[in-house]
Amino acid sequence: MEKEELTKETMAFPLLEWFDENKRVLPWREDPKPYRVWISEIMLQQTRVETVKSYFERFMNHFPTILDLAKAEEDELLKAWEGLGYYSRAKNLQKAAKILVEQYDAKLPMEQEELLKIPGIGPYTSGAISSIAYGRKAAAVDGNVLRVFMRLLADDSDILKESVKKKTAERVLALMPEERAGDFNQALMELGAMVCLPHGAPKCKECPLMERCAARKQGREEEFPKKSKNKLRKRVKRTILILSYQNQIVLQKRPDTGLLSGLYEFPGLEGIYTKEDIGIYLEQMGVRAEKIKKIERARHIFSHVEWYMQGYYVEISKLTENKVHENMPWIFVERKTAREQYPIPSAFLAYKKYL
Ligand code: SF4
User: Fold this and answer.
1) Is residue 225 lining ligand 1, measured as CB closer than 6 Å?
2) CATH number of 8-223
């Protein structure tokens, strides 16, 4: 079995060379000021790079500084966040910005330990800000970095364990060249995102570390990273909306391929939202909610995924001018017809009584 023998010479420098030649041009990368790195990392938490690209500059134009963010009106803030979803991220950013103004002279601290005291900034984000914006030696270990290391070392540790994340952070720090801390973290993430791809399809022939990769040498690259069995099933949180309008209920058809394809379901959102978030979302869809009531929570287990659902019963009082919902697959169906004629899978059993 291959022993761990990665060094700066054999791993860090070739990786940085590859990064210099191949890195994507990203707006926050071009001008990595602390505030810009922070905002981009929060946006990227639950949203794809391509989507974030189009919203990032717009947001920065609205709120060019931490002070601007701290004193923004909530409506303006949410409007600038529109399209990114998970509105609570925007609200939490503002909460943190207020603390930065009150306690840190409207600046993000340099050191990882200090950054960790700010709400919403965890080990990964603090490492990213400290290294990318301030050049401090700090590790930023996300799923990409874990995958790269587990494959490079053919390490079959369970990456869901905190101890494995910690060990990986130590490995990153041991290999990190002092003068290029931020670039090294970004190079690892970039390799994971562009070459050492997840779900068994790494592009090893394009990898600058191919000669050093234990998993590749053993022909086992698709076996890593390992995750503990009971967590193999993906857990997805969903908000389920039972939208009632006059004597009708809103349903939508699921896509023609994939899970529960072609069946009908209640509209939903990925993630668990608050009543307030749902009100804002519906308003944007052109639907005015008269009453939003939290109802059952439910869980449904499929073979590869588990849904954790929070239901809301919404009485719609009005369809407004802003009829975005008309571009959605929403259909307004008379309750009796919905009960009798539309195939609604048992995953929604807990909510069928509202039909
Ligand atoms: S050689 Fe393949 S498996 Fe190994 S680090 Fe590179 S892309 Fe990942």
Assistant:
1) no
2) 1.10.340.30
